[in-house]
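B., you asked whether I could sanity-check this one before it goes into the benchmark set. Here's the sequence:
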Amino acid sequence: MAGRRAVAAHLLMPGKAIRVRGVVQGVGFRPAIWHLARQHRLTGSVWNDGEGVMIRAFGEEQDLNVFIEQIPLQLPPLARLEGLEIEELAGVAPSEFQIVASRSDGIDTPIAADAATCPECLAEIADPDNRRYRYPFTNCTHCGPRLSIVRSVPYDRGHTSMAAFAMCPQCKQEYDDPADRRFHAQANCCPVCGPKLWLEALIVPTQSMGAMDDPISQSAEMLRQGFIVAIKGLGGFHLACDASNAEAVDMLRQRKRRYAKPLALLARDASMVSRYALINSQELSVLQHHTAPIVLLQAQGESLAPGVAPDDDKLGFMLPYTPLHSLLMQELDAPIVLTSGNVSDEPQCTDNAEVREKLAGIADYWLLHDRDIVNRLDDSVVRLMDGKMRMLRRARGYSPEALRLPKGFEESGNTLAMGGELKNSFCLLKNGQAIVSQHIGDLESAAVQQDYRQAIDLYRKLNDFCPDRIVVDKHPGYLSTQYGHTLAATEVAELVSAQHHHAHLAACLAEHGVGLDAPPVLAAIFDGLGMGENSELWGGEFLLGDYRGYTRLGHFQPIALPGGTQAMREPWRNTYAQLRYYFDWQALQRDYADLEVMQWLAGKPLATLDAMIDKKLNSPLGSSCGRWFDAFAAALGLHADRVDYEGQAAITLEVLATPLFAEERPYPQAWSIDSSGALAVLSWQGLWLAVLNDLKCGTDKTRIAARIHHSLAVATVDVMNGLSRQTGANSIVLSGGVFQNRLLLEAVSDQLRQHDKTVLSPQHYPMNDGGLALGQAVIAAARHI
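And here's what the prediction gave me:
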């Protein structure tokens, strides 16, 4: 009788149904719940489904409450909790707590991002007595591939490229044991049953080099000897060479046709990085984080090959994020270049056959393996600016994790935002969450366009997503806009257009959790070019806006862009156009005939440019801050003739200004604000005159560059303070690709705060066009709501 009473009491225990939302699949969340439930004497079950994780727990009321309180405090390293929904549960309490099979009933939970190797796995590959000693594909639920190998959801092994590798009995035992950290680690494997690594040489491109017993050691030796090695990584191939070998670096640049843009570096550990660059605690924390991005650091200390980062004072370092990279770097005493494995302007290679063909003229050796890379992922890039780590390129380690939008966006329906033309990413908005894709790249390349379309298809599949509306940029020439039009017609979805600079503003609001009905904010949006409302070209904009709309309050003085896109590639065109606008060119030539810039411009086809500008032939007016920077950089002789990549001239001007920036001040009377019309127009005749006079006096160009930066910063603050008085708005957004200039962002932010303004600037999403899609999505959603 007593036994029956005990069983009955057990069956009548209180229960809770707990719905968990967030990044909770494929990250060891269920085993953590299993351990926690057992710790608090609970019975029940936990499983994955289309909405996240479901928990049914039974026990004493006090134990249940403590269990629920502990869930957010006991998360596995890669899990991210976005919500707990709790209901009382009636039913029979089971005798134990179990992890049960996944249930496929729709998709509403994000895939986790790929994660760098955890300390436990690193310890195993370093232990000669461990069965995974020196195994380059070691992983667990706390680390390893996720998005890069997934084909569909739920995230189970059969839906990944690991389906090709049947687990051996030992790995299967780990996989099935809730007490093991490899419980349901979908990429779990070992040397017996997992992917294999080998090295191939140029002379035998289709045969493995059997004599090379340890391909990692052989690869390290090839790098030491000055060869270029193509390495198959997590989300694509990289091209590697010894970063201290000038000949090898120059050879890589020539073969890859990447002549000037800085190259990324891989170091063994933070100690190695510190030999070549300054690192503070924030930068160190991000370097060692499981996201493992490239971190831009101030170069200082020992020198690397000059070709690593020509004309730049920064080095982009990352630390090993797979066991393969860790094992390789343990055998090297200096950093290696680790740049995308592609020919310039094409996507990173991901396939063994593809890399043998496309990189045959670049790499001498290929370090290959037989695990397929399903989804291409470039390395993410961050930089410390204004006290925060700022995302410059968002990809591996961060995508496809979702952003929970402010309250109210849950009712927006499904929105697909197509992004821009350069640095493209796209965005899916569903159930109040924005899922921004990894960095896709510049859509000018046909191969990148194909990758873009495939990535959109994949994200739709992973998120069971059918768009109600599709959002495009106003620029009709953008390939993303054109594809958006095609999709909208095919899907019978509403087509929405979002203005470029408004999208930059809205993306920043969304990231900072600004409410849907919050009052409008002021914004300075500085970038290269974006289409305005009436087909004008904008880029130095002062706006008042919220999610639903905006008002243009001011802008830089519009100046002709002679040659259109050629003005983006040849900075001297902007210098001449600005000088011609503000001054009488003949008088200027007389007064400043001895200046190098004047003599240099005299050798250009200025009569042709005059005719183009006068007749408005391929010379649209543009208020671009990016072209403003190009013009001043060229005046100081920095990449005046041609730039090799977007922003090169402006970056070089920032580098030139940095050493003396702290001790310099703006030029007096360098700008004027014309408020006589409907819009405030910021003009720069005084600044040009001051720069020309400094050049005539032989002033150090470093001082001139610093004064130019200060003048822009103070002028921006002057305009924003005036608009703040006019509108009553005290919150100010700073965004657009130009604000990736650290000197400018910090100077403007500091001065605005001194005037009691609240400053918002992008942090987790790029302020360049990589963040554009997020803004497009929330604009369309807010208007719909």
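One thing to flag: The CA atoms of residues 41 and 110 lie 31 Å apart. Otherwise nothing jumped out at me.
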